Structures
1.
Amino acid sequence: MDEISGIKKPELQALPRVGDRITFLYVEHAKVNRQDGAITVTDSRGIIRIPAAIVGVLLFGPGTDVTHRAMELIGDTGTSVVWTGERGVRNYAHGRALSHNTKLLIKQAELVSNVRTRISVARKMYQIRFENEDVSNLTMQQLRGREGARVRSIYRKESKATGVPWTGREYDPNDFAGGNPINQALSAAHTALYGLVYSVIVALGLSPGLGFVHTGHDLSFVYDIADLYKADVTIPIAFKIASKLDVNNIGRETRLAVRDAFVDGKIMEKITRDLYKLMGEGEQEVIADLINLWDDKEGLVEHGVSYEEFS
């Protein structure tokens, strides 16, 4: 058989960990190709080269053409891909995760399938928001009420600080331009955060659909986790951008501001730590290519063995 041209597929252990990668890159109206170990993005302004393994998630917007060779490299380096709508507002589809290990996924499924453990994880999520309060005995109704009051207070505080009028959150996913500037900015900022959170969740092998607070949507867990950081990251950025008088494209300006806030990678590290904490697991490498067979008595047994010889 002829050898496949190009660089050799990297070993999973040799790839940067998800917490060490830069957050996301948004591409639209460009052609995405590959040159050696780099993704090339070509548009009317020229070509830029991006080492694929250092990116957490690539957001492909309208007008993006991606070659087969580019997707091969993106898959080999475990970079998440999300195909989005205009301005990165909607999530149409996504690519393969970095992790090939299901340890955290199994733990997530166990926790979400039991009412007692599900509430316990939900309380942990609220505890992250209310660091100095004891929420261990609060019901879900009480927690939601407290969270609602907290978010309304944050909106009022940012409105007062920036001078941006606030009349409430209004968002139509089919009519981005129909919202007022602050709601457009919030939508763009939150969407960027969702993309980042999504990339970390799937990179660790967790399910974006198995939420503990949100439920019934294939991104329920993404919304659970993103809500932990909106007050500190996306809401202040959205109000700051909306307060500017010289913004021509508020969606783009907001995404760039969110990107700048993410650029040091600290939020990816925090998301990773919080996910391990919520799952009750110590932080560890989970990218090993490991497969076992399930056994009702022994738990896991080795894969690739002819067990007929032992029966």
2.
Amino acid sequence: MNPHVTILLQSLIGGIGMGSIYALVALGYSMVYRSMGLVNFAHGNIFMVGAYIGTVFYVSMHTNFVLAFALALLLTAGLGMIVQKILRPLEKMDLIYMMLGTLGIGIVLQNLSIIIWGPDGIAVPFPINNTPWMVKGISIAPYTLVIVGVAALIVIALQLFLNRTKIGLAMRASAQERDMSLALGMNVGLMNGLTLAIGSALAACAGMLVGPVFYVSPDMSTSVGINGFAAAILGGFGSMPGAIVGGLVFGILEQLVATQVSAWSEVIAFVIFVVVLIFKPSGIVGERVVDKL
């Protein structure tokens, strides 16, 4: 096979794997924004906390990876509910106060993580044999396929939940017509709490999946967390399909650049990201007016 084609395919596979992580993080940002109109600046820190929680069960307590994964999602979803309770007194004030509130919560989570787990990272072993497969000169890490497969299942399950269950439909109704929902006696605060819980669980899912690839450390909230935020904007902030597309595009861009100039991969990826937004400010999917859930 032509070496250039091999490098391109290799980058695409790696990019889809990392892009799946960014897409999960971006989905959390977008869900909260669609439901509450809020940019949750603590989301990257929640992603990091979710990764740590799963790592504690999997590495420190030697729990099965799948069980540690499920526990991380549940406990991080609970953290999302707590965040909503903390922010609730600010809901009747200007939105900027809630955004500042999420910024403060993020700083608290970051510092608590350093106090509890230390500033150094924790190495997480792969839950499966990750010896690469060679297919026509292309190296494929089995764990990359696990990341893509689990992320796809999570996205499908989320869509089914929002479109086929009473709670999911109630969340969508609450997000679309908040005043009408309040008039009908719907508990909008609970719906917002559920949205933050699901968004946090998505972040924990991304954190658990990426843990064996990177060290789980306090710094991952800025690296993967910010890239996930950028992916949400690239796809169209508040758009759920946009979050998925943005995550995959950002991941592939990053990998393609890394094969040429690895030290500048993130810088150049962000430059391309800015150029795209200059010509299409609403993002790739292009929702100028964000529909609610």
3.
Amino acid sequence: MAAFVGLCQVTLTVPGSTSLKDKRRVLRSIVDRLRQRYALAVAEVGSQDAWQRADIAFACVSGEPSRCEAILAECVRWLETRSDIELVHVETEIL
């Protein structure tokens, strides 16, 4: 039996944010949505003190690497549709 972990690290900007509170409100909605809609493990992993920048990571587990890739790609596409953020960098790997 094989298990694969899909890991995606994303750097994004929150252009409308004027405070950490603004950024956290936007990030909270992203993190909650990723957890609820895709059942992922999600965390902010960097840039915690920056007002308009965030680094988040999310992961999924599957018995097939292609399923992990599909889930992560769908999440990135969803992030790209959000008007309140801009994706700066996306890095995906299957472990």
